[in-house]
Specification:
With 202 residues, the protein is of the alpha/beta class. The protein has one domain. It contains 4 helices and 7 strands. It has helices at 66-76, 99-102, 109-121, 160-174; strands spanning 13-17, 30-40, 46-59, 83-89, 92-98, 131-136, 177-179. Strands 1, 2, 3, 4, 5, 6 and 7 form a 7-stranded mixed β-sheet that branches.
């Protein structure tokens, strides 16, 4: 029996949802994947046609859905498009952005972090979480457990190589980040080819 996917927000949709701890990583680690529509690409550059943006929320054992309110504020502030992973642990919000954005010559990372913190401080939450920002690079590296341009800032309380592997597996499954929209093809809507009529021999 398939579990129903929670819809946590009216601004973006949940396309995959783990509602309770899975496995033995960290303290009850599990994750969900969300999809938004963006008019900014991964480097926060305006684009002519919107893209879809898939990102992952990393939950710990308490599955604190207040993080969704903060993400909505980040989205409405135009700061969401570089984000690939986001999670709250022990009262701190950890945000992992694409390395392409973090190291872009057009990125003022200090200003970006300040904007995130200001947005978090002005969110509807009564508790204001400090923000930490790291980066994630999906490019293959050796060793794969400690890739270059990846800093996870304690988003999960476990050994770094285990956390890197976990997040890379999520990214491998969902290809997180911004990408062009591709409409689904529904078989039921495709034209039905005519049935061939056998040729009668004379």
């Amino acid at each position: 029996m398939t579990k129903q996917i929670n819809q946590y927000s009216t601004l973006f949709s949940c396309i995959y949802d783990e509602q309770e701890p899975v496995g033995h990583l960290g303290r009850g680690t599990h994750y969900s994947v969300f999809r938004s529509v963006e008019w900014l690409d991964v480097t926060r550059t305006p684009i002519n046609r919107p893209q879809i943006h898939d990102f992952s929320v990393i939950w710990d054992e308490d599955h604190d859905t207040r993080v969704i309110d903060v993400i909505e504020s980040i989205y409405m502030a135009g700061l969401l498009s570089p984000i690939q992973f986001i999670g709250e642990r022990k009262g701190m919000l950890t945000i992992i952005v694409a390395a392409k954005f973090y190291f872009s010559e057009n990125t003022d990372i200090r200003d970006y972090v300040k904007q995130l913190q200001d947005t978090c401080d002005n969110s509807p939450l009564q508790d204001h979480w400090p923000v930490g920002v790291g980066m994630f690079d999906r490019s293959p590296h050796f060793p794969p457990s400690n890739p270059h341009q990846t800093e996870l800032c304690g988003i999960i309380n476990d050994a770094n190589h285990s956390v890197v592997t976990y997040l890379r597996n999520i990214d491998s499954l969902w290809r997180l980040g911004t990408k062009a929209y591709t409409p689904k093809v529904h078989i039921a809507n495709l034209p039905i080819p005519p049935v061939p009529v056998p040729i009668q021999q004379q």
